[in-house]
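Practice problem: predict the structure.
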Amino acid sequence: MLKAGIIGFGVMGKKHCQCYQMMRDVKVVSICETNPIKKDNTSHAAANVGKKDVELDLSNVNIYKDYRQMLMEEELDLVSITLPTFMHADFTVQALEAGLHVLCEKPMALSLEECRLMMKEAEKSGKKLQIGHCIRFWPEYVKTKEIIDSGRYGKVKAAAFQRLSSFPTWGWKNWQQDGDKNGGAMMDLHIHDTDIILHWFGLPTSVFTSATKGPSGNFDHINTHYAYTDGKTVVAEASWLMAPSFGFKMAFTLVLENATIIYDSTSKSKLKIYTLENETFTFPAQQKDAYWYQIEHFINNLRGEQTLEIISPQQAYETVRTALAEKQSATERKAVDLESSLVFNSY
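Answer:
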């Protein structure tokens, strides 16, 4: 039996708890949260997509307000760190130092220095560190990567990604509205697509970004072009500047030599494949969501049941590095080269 702790019990903490409680031989034994938790009422969370609030059974779960006390008193195997981004590095390092495996929400951190500290401690401790880049586990994105890798419809010629949202109004002590604490839409929202682009296509040679600052005080509307030596066109747009009534939308268009693939989170048939033979295929909805698959992957790795890493700390580091290069490009209004990483350059 793997014993899990959860650090931070907002919308993502509750989602992690739900997934753990549905898994065999995993038990949530403790939660650390500074806000009061009512064990008989775990609802009332807010989020943008795929995170419906649920009632959870916390009757046998110990609740702490002090993280260090929880680490000292509980016999844990792993923790989920579902805290505001600016806290990721400190809490991850402490958990690894305590000999625990860590699943930390994305992004890894707001600076490369913090990312390196997390990676160094994971290597030193010999414990698993997984960063929660959930889009790598999103069923429609997984299916699309399978199609790309198979070569079934030829090479990718172009790809365009979109992630649009009204400005977030939730979050502990308004951290989601503070660009210094969340990195703005660039590091909180847009980084999902930066990560999937690296996952699908590898590290670009350079990025060119135009961006507008918004309510967070940081870049809240972003357009980036990712340059690749094989000539394919890859662009991504993200925004926190949509009207409140807009809600949320994530989408992509993928143009291959012999097919076009369209994904739209607001469509009934979210993933569609159009071929040159005038055929159209749709992808059926899955019973489990990306958060389940992501946590299942983490647990399976801890059990030794799975050797392939879908997301490694090094890859999460490269995603942050690319996003920071985009921020630099937007600030300097010029393309920024991405030299081969000394840490990891294979996807």
